[in-house]
Design goal:
It contains 7 helices and 2 strands, in the order H-H-H-H-H-E-E-H-H. It has helices at residues 11-28, 35-39, 49-67, 75-80, 94-113, 140-166, 170-178, and strands at residues 121-123, 137-139. The longest helix has 27 residues, at 140-166.
Amino acid sequence: MADKVSLTPDEREGLLGFLAQQRQAMKAATYGLTDDQARAVPSASTLSVGGLVKHVSSTESGWIDLVLRIPPKPFAESIANYQENYRIAPDETLESVLAAYDQVAARTEEVITGIADLNQEVPIPKDVPWFPKDASVWSVRWVLLHLIEETARHAGHADIVRESLDGATAMPLLAAVEGWPETDWLKPWKPAE
């Protein structure tokens, strides 16, 4: 059941498990949506469910690049594309955005599994205004915890946007995704007829 992370004595498996759990929550918010619904902005916010998936995918990929010490684009260049990471482009589909997210997740799992020590240093880029100026490194552990937090926060946003679209909420969506049986307390989401 993806809503619970298995009990494990291994810190790395636990952190990766919680990150996978939050990715699943993000993806569950997309369940049953059309491309147009995934692009829809049904509230005063500019957020869409599909755009949020694209954003967390891009964010996770960027953090893993930092872990791998792949130099980021200069901040001025990357900030120009920042808002585009919150939108599904006309040539993209929800399916393609989800497939890209799955590739990012697989890469993260592979990279983190291959790191011997979660205390490994990750240099902090100095040209990003919201990064600390009084520190020079994070640890891989810190990056994983940040990715869990970032993904969880945006999964919550996706839940709200999705509910604004068609009234679907997180647990019934997750139940539908995972094929849970209907009970007195939970009915898996079904599209309106």
